[in-house]
Amino acid sequence: MSELNAHVGSRIRSYRRQRRMTLQQLADIIHKSRASVSKYETGEITLDIETLYDISRALDVSVYQLTDYQPATEEIPSRSAGLIQHSPFFQADQLYFYFYDGRYHRLKDGIIHIHKTEDPAGSCEASMFISSIASSGRSSGVHYTGKVVYSDMLIRFSFVNRYNPLEEDLLYIFNPLELREDTEGLLCGISSVDLMPCAFKCLVTLKPQEATEELKKRVLFSSQELRRLQKLNMLLVNNRE
User: Is residue 232's pLDDT more than 50?
Assistant: First the structure.
């Protein structure tokens, strides 16, 4: 059992008891078994991002209140110090991301380069290149430059089109709680094509991926995700071609 799992579990148990909520009541709200919730609280099971957010909403607390873990004898690590304590996504100098652009019915990919120089505010320079994946090869791509900021749960990139400064994009990457080579992200901004807001679910990886149907399925919103977004009145999306 890791210290992080134990810490998150203790936070869940503490806030649940403060709200006079039983294990079964919390389990019913997040659609999990009572045994699973009990193991979350004891730290025996590593929580995935979606379940963590479900629990935070059920307990009416922020995710940060559940994950505010800091080593007892160490200072908060910056990106240039103590990187070994972070996931590979914090350490990577290069990341790959994939999303499906429904406007053009096309899978697209991108490469992010992270530059090591760190400014006093704690952010790093970064550049991004987005291209289309087509059977005949890659189309011409678009270059962006910007910055990356690291936090416990998220990595946030802010980019500006190198040739059109009015086009800005934000890319949020969820830091996985367990060790793996891919995670989900959200790419959003204002499209320079039609001046409309847009947002895409992304798959972010440490290594390049092949453009397969399986990859396409992973970056499309599932029916369950669509129902969830509609219920929360957060975002309306449509993946039908």
Answer: yes
241 is a domain residue: no
Tokens representing residue 69 in the block: 């873990």
Q: Give the type of residue at 53.
A: Y
Q: Does residue 62 fall inside a structural domain?
A: yes
Instruction: Please tell me the distance from the alpha carbon of residue 215 to that of residue 205, in angstroms, as a whole number.
Output: 11
Alpha carbons within 13 angstroms on the beta-carbon side of residue 154 total: 12
Give 150-197 pLDDT, tens digit per residue.
887 788 999 988 877 778 889 998 877 667 889 988 888 877 666 778
Range of the structural domain that residue 159 is part of? 85-232
Q: What is the pTM of this model?
A: 0.57
